Amino acid sequence: MSYNIISYALITLAMILATVLTRFLPFLFFPAGKKTPKYVIYLGNTLPYATIGLLVVYCLRGVSFTAHPYGLPEVLSIAVIAVLHIWKGNSLLSIGGGTALYMVLIQTFFK
Amino acid sequence: MENQYKKMEALKYAFPKTLPIMAGYLVLGAAFGILMRVNGFGIFWALLWSVFVYAGSLQYLGITFFTALVNPWYALFMSVMLNARHLFYGLSMVDQLKDAGRFRPYLIFSMTDETFSVLCSEQVPDHLSRNWVYFFIAALDQLYWVFGTLAGAIAGTMIQFDTAGMDFALTALFTVIFIDQWKSRKDHRPACIGVISSVLCVMLFGKDVFIVPAMVVIISVITIGYWKTKDKEERI
Questions:
Q1: How many CB pairs under 8 A join A and B?
Q2: Which of A69, B9, B175, B187 is the most exposed place for a label (fewest CB within 10 A)?
Q3: pLDDT at residue B80 in the model
């Protein structure tokens, strides 16, 4: 039992360390006092756009387009989100509507 | 007094910005709390993680670390791999957080996928305190996450309705931000690079390990773009 608790604590420590390390490292390389290199400013202007693209793919990484239901719930829901968002521009409506549709789709039609 | 007013104004501005994340974090946080409980780990660990680890997908993965009682070094390695995308957020925010002063450490620590996605495209109006707006957005987000975790860990299996598919809120959130960013910028190349590189890497390397290769490809392509524009400037 006590052995388990020590293991749990060490694993937790490792997870905290990993988060702190990956979040703080860039700031240690480029401290606030110094002039930020041009290249890093350029990254700041371009990377966020690429990263959100990466995150969308990351969320959909488990979707199979070759087996039933061929990614249809995801594709349909994202299409609806896109149409809603371009049309109304209301984030809550787009996210709420898209998520509700997805839940209905996978719980009923694509069960 | 004036400082109090400044804070209130910043909070009033920040709160609506966090609403989409509130929905996502309450659901995902609660789901995490429930999973911890179902696997036999109490409120203590769940809360400890949500306060000090504060990384959604890592906390989900962490449950498997606990159930398998893995070697802490293995846990560290896997956690760094999964969290590596945060290096990108840091690189993107280095300049933006330059003047954040005493808020800087917390803002850096609390830069989750969602908080980053809101802050990176945030243009705070001039009459508001930028640092307080940033801080409230970041702190509210973590509050939702911790509260969701707590609710999930307490409620356990009491939830009656079918929550399957609720985690799609996260995908929806990123899609909406993607569209907003697409509309706000004429140059769509970075967005396209992000999507195309990631899709190619999923196909090449598989869904479990594609993140790091995708990051390498993205940063390489963007760096090539940087050298090309730099050459042009120098020629002019």
A1: 262
A2: B187
A3: 84
> Which of A11-20 are b and which e, b meaning 16 or more Cβ less than 10 Å from the residue's Cβ?
bbebbbbbbb
Q: Does B8 touch chain A (CB under 8 A)?
A: no
Cβ proximity of A46 and B186 under 8 Å: no
Cα A91 to chain centroid distance, Å, stands at 16
Q: Does B129 touch chain A (CB under 8 A)?
A: no
Quote ipTM for the complex: 0.83
pTM for the model stands at: 0.73
Q: In Å, how far is A107's CA from the nearest CA of chain B?
A: 7
Question: Does A9 contact B at CB distance below 8 Å?
Answer: no
Q: Of B130, B121, B110, B88, which Cα lies nearest the Cα of B25?
A: B110
> Which single residue is written with the structure tokens 């620590």?
B109
The per-residue pLDDT for range A34-53, each reduced to its tens digit, is 777 888 888 878 887 888 88
Cα dist from B161 to A17, A104, B14, B70, whole Å: 37, 12, 32, 34
Render pLDDT for B16-33 as a digit per residue (tens, 0 to 9). 999 878 877 887 888 788
